[in-house]
């Protein structure tokens, strides 16, 4: 799997120490494989134990979250925060509420976040947090009590200059608001400790749209460079129907594409006329209902059970925007056989290692998550700047900066890929471009 002894040994040690953490090992394996040429070109890094220093999180906190449901029963969940790497700035990364959350998922996300944040060129280190709490079917009052209890422990580990969390799966504007309120109550401090805040209390315009929009800016740039084309006139499939998926759909449509399918964790809807986003927003953002509802409201649309079946829909561009490992090798084969020319990741690690390799080998434009979905955290960085300066930029100002950052991320990853001899290998390009800066800063600081 690896060519050099040093990298082989580092991975073997990592497996030994983190045996049960499949997602963390998967992310580390991909990163280590891409960093091999860089390490080979800089043999002095082995004696500095740079990979070991990079892969070990600076801090990992696990805590108990006790709350009461609407019937007055006690409930107990587990909370986490990994403060992965602060070499280039305060820890920054989202909070995820989903029953699948465990130490492995939080560590894989924190590791990826470290490189992603570096790629944005903003001064942000990497972190991630969450809980195995399932927000589905909970009342607003239960969400409030859970968020307050979660923050009652988390507050002591974070701060506007040390660690600034944001949203992720299951954590949107409502949850951020409740957590921010609790942080403020405990600390008596109004600060930019969280991003993704509401506009009335320090949030940034365009933050909600940023990950989806940024994904499309990245994809459009990659299509131009690698296939001499763009979104205009293309058929697109977007998995998921949450924050990232909705705004990826919106921007792809604005750029002239037709999005024909979207999904949730139960199944997908297909609409040959193009998905009506107002209906999706009503179902997912307002009613918090299941996507199957769409077929009851839009004539001519159909529903297929099983979320991974979405990859059987014929398309030019696929944007996986739901969750990790939602696109396997068999799915990649189906997409390529159906003529798909680009797969760019809105979700974190949605493609398995085998699927990603298949795309690159088949000259599909493959935008890896840490580059393609960095628009969300980049705009969180812009929210931090606005909070520190106590000012707010217009939507156009933020959107223009986001566009510039995404174009720059593509150019940096692409330049490294070209330098290493395979212009389609943006995975290696992004990993090395992100790692270089973190590596230099760690060495300079002796950490
Ligand atoms: P949301 O909670 O808003 O939406 C998640 C979507 O994914 C929902 O449609 C959900 O469906 C679906 N989903 C969850 N689990 C599965 C599953 N096992 N199979 C199929 N679908 C599933 O989350 P976000 O849109 O914020 O996040 C989506 C992805 O993007 C995550 O990987 C996240 O880490 C990543 N990301 C998010 C950023 C952001 O700014 N929000 C920034 C960068 C990355 P259901 O309703 O059925 O659960």
Strands side by side in the biggest sheet: 9-8-7-6-10-11-12
Rg over CA atoms, rounded to whole Å, is 21 Å
Let me know the CATH homologous superfamily of the largest domain: NAD(P)-binding Rossmann-like Domain
String of helices and strands: HHHHEEEHEHEHHEHEEHHEEHEHEHHHH
Describe the global form: globular
What is the distance, rounded to the nearest whole angstrom, between the alpha carbons of the first and last residues?
Answer: 28 Å
CATH architecture of the largest domain: 3-Layer(aba) Sandwich
- Major sheet: 7 strands, mixed
Count of discrete structural domains = 3
Strand content: 15-25%
- Low-pLDDT regions: none
**CATH topology group of the largest domain:** Rossmann fold
Q: Helix coverage percent of residues?
A: 40-55%
At the first level of CATH, the class of the largest domain is Alpha Beta
Q: How many DSSP E strands?
A: 12
Continuous helix count: 17
Averaged pLDDT, please?
A: 97
Which class of secondary structure composition applies to the elements?
Answer: alpha/beta
Bound molecules: NADPH dihydro-nicotinamide-adenine-dinucleotide phosphate
Name its key features:
single chain; 447 residues; alpha/beta; Rossmann fold; 3 domains; seven-stranded mixed sheet; five-stranded mixed sheet; 17 helices; 12 strands; 15% strand; globular; binds NADPH dihydro-nicotinamide-adenine-dinucleotide phosphate
């Amino acid at each position: 799997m690896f060519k050099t002894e040093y990298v082989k040994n580092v991975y073997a040690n990592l497996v030994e120490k983190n045996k049960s953490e499949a997602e963390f090992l998967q992310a580390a394996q991909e990163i280590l494989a891409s960093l091999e040429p860089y390490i080979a070109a800089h043999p002095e890094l082995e004696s500095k134990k740079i990979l070991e220093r990079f892969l070990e999180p600076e801090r990992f906190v696990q805590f108990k979250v006790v709350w009461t449901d609407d019937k007055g029963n006690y409930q107990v969940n587990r909370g986490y925060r990994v403060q992965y790497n602060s070499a280039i700035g305060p820890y920054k990364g989202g909070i995820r509420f989903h029953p699948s959350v465990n130490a492995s998922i939080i560590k894989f996300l924190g590791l990826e976040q470290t490189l992603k944040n570096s790629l944005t060129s903003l001064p942000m280190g990497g972190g991630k947090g969450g809980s195995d709490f399932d927000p589905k079917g909970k009342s607003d009052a239960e969400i409030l009590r859970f968020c307050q209890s979660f923050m009652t422990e988390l507050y002591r580990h974070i701060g506007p200059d040390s660690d600034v969390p944001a949203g992720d799966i299951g954590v949107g504007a409502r949850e951020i608001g409740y957590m921010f309120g609790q942080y403020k109550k405990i600390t008596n401090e109004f600060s930019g400790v969280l991003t993704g805040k509401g506009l009335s209390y320090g949030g940034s315009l365009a933050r909600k749209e940023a990950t989806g929009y940024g994904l499309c800016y990245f994809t459009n740039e990659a299509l131009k460079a690698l296939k001499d084309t763009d979104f205009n006139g293309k058929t697109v499939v977007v998995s998921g129907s949450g924050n990232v998926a909705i705004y990826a759909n919106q921007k792809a449509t604005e750029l002239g594409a037709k999005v024909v399918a979207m999904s949730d964790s139960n199944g997908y809807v297909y609409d040959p006329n193009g998905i009506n986003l107002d209906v999706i927003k009503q179902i997912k953002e307002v009613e918090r209902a299941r996507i199957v509802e769409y077929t009851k409201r839009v004539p001519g649309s159909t529903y297929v059970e099983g979320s991974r079946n979405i990859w059987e829909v014929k398309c030019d561009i696929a944007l996986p925007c739901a969750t990790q490992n939602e696109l396997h090798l068999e799915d990649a084969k189906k997409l390529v056989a159906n003529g798909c020319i680009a797969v760019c990741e809105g979700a974190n690690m949605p493609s398995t290692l085998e699927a990603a390799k298949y795309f690159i080998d088949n000259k599909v434009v493959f935008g890896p998550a840490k580059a393609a979905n960095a628009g969300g955290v980049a705009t969180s960085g812009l929210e931090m700047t606005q909070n520190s300066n106590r000012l707010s930029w217009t939507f156009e100002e933020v959107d223009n900066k986001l566009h510039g950052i995404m174009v720059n991320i593509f150019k940096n990853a692409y330049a490294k890929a070209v330098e290493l001899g395979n212009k389609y290998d943006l995975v290696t390009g992004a990993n090395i471009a992100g790692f270089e800066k973190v590596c230099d800063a760690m060495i300079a600081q002796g950490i």
